[in-house]
From TrEMBL, chain A:
<dbReference type="GO" id="GO:0048471">
    <property type="term" value="C:perinuclear region of cytoplasm"/>
</dbReference>
<keyword id="KW-0007">Acetylation</keyword>
<keyword id="KW-0999">Mitochondrion inner membrane</keyword>
<dbReference type="GO" id="GO:0006915">
    <property type="term" value="P:apoptotic process"/>
</dbReference>
<dbReference type="GO" id="GO:0016174">
    <property type="term" value="F:NAD(P)H oxidase H2O2-forming activity"/>
</dbReference>
<comment type="function">
    <text>Functions both as NADH oxidoreductase and as regulator of apoptosis. In response to apoptotic stimuli, it is released from the mitochondrion intermembrane space into the cytosol and to the nucleus, where it functions as a proapoptotic factor in a caspase-independent pathway. Release into the cytoplasm is mediated upon binding to poly-ADP-ribose chains. The soluble form (AIFsol) found in the nucleus induces 'parthanatos' i.e. caspase-independent fragmentation of chromosomal DNA. Binds to DNA in a sequence-independent manner.</text>
</comment>
<keyword id="KW-0597">Phosphoprotein</keyword>
<dbReference type="InterPro" id="IPR050446">
    <property type="entry name" value="FAD-oxidoreductase/Apoptosis"/>
</dbReference>
<keyword id="KW-0520">NAD</keyword>
From TrEMBL, chain B:
<dbReference type="GO" id="GO:0005758">
    <property type="term" value="C:mitochondrial intermembrane space"/>
</dbReference>
<dbReference type="InterPro" id="IPR010625">
    <property type="entry name" value="CHCH"/>
</dbReference>
<dbReference type="Pfam" id="PF06747">
    <property type="entry name" value="CHCH"/>
</dbReference>
<dbReference type="GO" id="GO:0015035">
    <property type="term" value="F:protein-disulfide reductase activity"/>
</dbReference>
<keyword id="KW-0811">Translocation</keyword>
<feature type="compositionally biased region" description="Polar residues">
    <location>
        <begin position="126"/>
        <end position="156"/>
    </location>
</feature>
<dbReference type="GO" id="GO:0045041">
    <property type="term" value="P:protein import into mitochondrial intermembrane space"/>
</dbReference>
<dbReference type="GO" id="GO:0033108">
    <property type="term" value="P:mitochondrial respiratory chain complex assembly"/>
</dbReference>
<keyword id="KW-1015">Disulfide bond</keyword>
Amino acid sequence: MWTCKTTWKKLAPLARTCSTLCRQNARRTVLNSDRRLPMVTQAHMSSGTPGSGGDNNLYYLLVGATCIAGGFYAYRTIKGDQERYNERMNEIASRANKVAEQAETYLPEEPRAADPATDEPTNVPPPAPVEFPSHAPYLLIGGGTASFAAARSIRARDPGARVLIITDEPDLPYMRPPLSKELWFSDDPGVVDTLRFKQWNGKERSIYFQPPSFYVSPQDLEKVENGGVAVLTGKKVVHMDVRGNKVTLSDNTEISYDKCLIATGGVPRNLQVIERAGEEVTKRTTLFRKVEDFKALNKVSRDTKSITIIGGGFLGSELACALGRRSADSDLEVIQMFPEKGNMGKVLPEYLSNWTTAKVRSEGVRVITEALVKGVSFKDGKVEIKLKDGRVVKTDHIVAAVGLEPSVELAKSAGLEVDSDFGGYRVNAELQARSNIWVAGDAACFYDIRLGRRRVEHHDHAVVSGRLAGENMTGANKPYWHQSMFWSDLGPDVGYEAIGIVDSSLPTVGVFAKATAKDTPKAATEKSGTGIRSESETEGTASSTATSSTPAPPPEPQQKDDYGKGVIFYLRDKVVVGIVLWNVFNRMPIARKIIKDGEEHADLNEVAKLFNIHED
Amino acid sequence: MSYCKQEGKDRIIFVTKEDHEAPSNAELIADDPNDPYEDQGLILPSGEINWNCPCLGGMASGPCGTQFKEAFSCFHHSSEEVKGSECVDNFRAMQECMQKYPELYPQEDENQGAASGGSDAPTEDSAPTPTSDLTPTPESAPSSDNTPPTDIQAHS
């Protein structure tokens, strides 16, 4: 059935062109004959027919050739698709096996780990003996940002709700953006343990959304008077029985639910060349996502001489800048390599991407663009990265920031659909996969009424979608409507907020003003006295790069700095589908409105006026 | 003067302050304040309190959420001369609950419950809960996130 569907999809355009060609040819022949017929009837009949007959043969030949070529192309594509699909399913299956193995090895260690755990100030309630609630009215699978936002939403709307969060991480829910930004700029040498960071308004906070006292312990969840949120850490849901409304954990415990949210996020992708490179390389490779990865990389940055980041997107560039800053005080070499022509090459138009790359370089990072990694090996105590163009880079440690693979292991047992274009669980505009099952966050491929089907991997989206899922789990029936935003800071001079579909392959229109010293992320918050962007947006977002830690004053934006501040519109069929606010802050509501309207604007300069880019 | 350049599919326009002085003629669609899809502010069109408002932070969802909701509802519906004067018991219960969780509801010098209950409720309420929250700063309140239409209408 699948093959038929894709075959038809591939063939449809071809069939269409073939049929239109046929129709056009037929029409042309008819017209020709029509025109000729009146003349022909006067003269001999024979003069008309052989001519048009010969033309007909030519047309048939052309059409026939096109059909054969089209058929051949369709066959090749479908074959490729089939292979790609199989590869993907195999990959997911193999990952599930690996995780199942890990879960089994984790289990016998748990009772032993319980004792040292109780000595330290951990966020995990004493694990043994843990009685799990056998039933949770609201079950949230995954303990990240989306899950926490949903928990909060459920508790706000359903008085006395009992919410159980199950996470395979050992930590309580926390926010990820500081792991690649603020935490690296902290003055506190104990930041690795406290995980607290200073926002630009000077206030300090923890990456954890709530301290442990906020949560109810899992065994008390069913009894506590006004309900609450309980978190089961270090447990993985391995099987989901949708008909029976229950899930099975890795230790064979079963928990039934009334409403379930899947917010499993994803796991960092790795390069195949690294996976195949052997243990010496893989143990010197970091896939950055969790708190433990931050702690490990922090240690590595102090112990090694050279770190190479593979990947030029958000995470890669932010880590490069963070490590680059650190290299200023030590003799750490920081290299960043990626296949695009510049940092954020898939997000920013080329001129801005080049500009950003220059900034990253000024942070002390050696940026290698257009770098395709061909092979990785471990030689003479160094990790050797061979690029396709022959260049070789020798380093001590690799950080692979090459994307996220959404975690959809439950799809099989739950019978949930996985999206083949974007990955992740396929859900409708209300984030529902099936009755009583919702999906939010990185793992959700949802239908955005304005922008179409998509899957978004940003923090604010996790908050917005988590909150929406929580609302819908308590009967709101609202679609995804409030457009989430995202932001990035690359050093004290470059900061931008963005909303919608920000894909550099779309045509863009950028409207810029000359920057003054006042137009930097740091200056903007200092003036307003508050944290910016996220603070005026939905909750759960953290402000970005703190510069108070640097001893030297931030460099003045140079006069040749053409792209000081402005607005960039991303267009799809003449409609603005994405906006980047470049060094322009506190204007996200206007941007959101423009995207929501979805109108065709004849002059985008007029639209840009709405942002008052010359003001602060 | 503004000038424009084209780099492939990307267009770049540089504008001076004078260029942008004239008001914009871009048309924006008027917002429907009762749009059920939109995120509402603190008070819903029906007059009820939106407990899921980001401005409340975690107040309605935490361990003292029930007490907070009772106290705040009472205050909101109060039509006494001194608003909320009949809600003292509710606020006391809330305060007692909050004292059990000093980490979540840091006790400052004045009486937390009374201060937030008596004065302008929404903006102040977020102030006592800065640290334990999703919202990093108190001033985040109802303004920008929940009333974008006002901003837009001012321009158009």
